[in-house]
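Input set for joint prediction.
Command: fold jointly, output tokens.
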Amino acid sequence: MEKILLENKTIVTPGELIADGEGFAARDGSYNKGSKVYSSVVGIVNIKDNNIRVVKLGGEYNPQKDDYVVGIVTDMNFSNWFVDIGCPYDAGLRISEASRDYIDTDRYDMTHYFNYGDVIFAKIIELTESKKIGLTLKEPDLKKLEGGVLARIDPPKVPRLMGTKGSMVDMIEKKTKTTIYVGDNGYVWIKGNADDVKKVKEVISIINNESHISGLTKKIEDLLNKGGNR
Amino acid sequence: MSYKKTGRFDGRKADELRPVEMSVGILPNCTGSARVQVGKTVAIAGVYGPRKVRPKHAELKDKLLIRCYYDLVSFSVTDRARPGPSRRSIELGLVIKNAIERSIFVEKYPMSMIEVFVEIVQADAGSRCAAIIAASLAVADAGIEMRDFVPAVACGKIDDLICLDLTKQEEDVHDGEGATDIPIAYIPSEKEITLLQLDGKISEKDLMEAIKLGIKGCEEIHKMMKDVFKKRYETK
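tokens >
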């Protein structure tokens, strides 16, 4: 007998029965035991075509292939840069993936291209079983980010900061005249003048604390409008 | 004197728990946290991770490394507790680790670790059980994938009365057969006991009865553990 026992968007805790039946696939945040599917995290149920997911409500970043991340260069050797992307594993950026232009290590030092502490916006193209992570910058819009500051948001709340198709970020950028890059890993890079950056940071902390409230975009918009009149 | 006739010091029934209070997400600086109060016993747990393993040689290639630290705060007992690690705190760190490790999907986090710090702010018996509950809630709050929560409770015997959740006063009884203390941690969905210790004397028949009572208590606490997360996200 195939049966879904809980509705979409229900809040579940680890060990809670979500569905019973052979036809269901336990994806992220859930596990199978016999024919039953249980939740494995505290989160919100999301069922789509017999694929059962539980979206986490808290916790650290779990890297996935094709994620866009903001990272900090922490180390390098003769052909790789190592990047902190906020997870337990170091991400590597190879010279061949670092630029569409030729990188001449005979003429320049590695630090000429990316120095310690530099911030990059990159994409994860490799994620092996042994948690080796490979990044690339060879795509439009992927680059070294210069002249901004970093902020953090809890990784599960990144979708709220983005809004539907980036609507929230676009709105914040427009209202505060800043440039914002949001990584799926919860690192946020902001460029603008000091007051505007401060405002964006406040907004991020609000989103961080009230992420499960609906109508958040409207609330943030009102807040930023008020700030403009003052 | 028979405790079967007179009942317990605080007037509880034999199978009654002390009042339990729980909250999660109380410490902003760590990944997950929880506070658990069972009667007068208060435990606070904080979890960091998953993060990089230091030192590197301690890293496990195929699974998550769990480190647990148990600590009694100086003012947690009537006589001052000497601060810093002790033989007892090292043992209890291991006991907590073993109790919660079975519930966690350790194979999903290779080459990383979590660190669980439990502070006992007030102690009135059953501190290892409160610590396990707090640790389990904090790990769940940190978003780590697990099969189920791990509730824990002490059952035991005061003289001739088999009962649940002993207080310090009850543990110190020396009349008749004296007091026996049996802390139990039990994962309900797996039907698995992950902690079973015994301090005192008890017959085999009584032990079985006490364990049954302990499992019943664990199931009660398990329900509260589920509710604490639901309440946290629904009231807002």
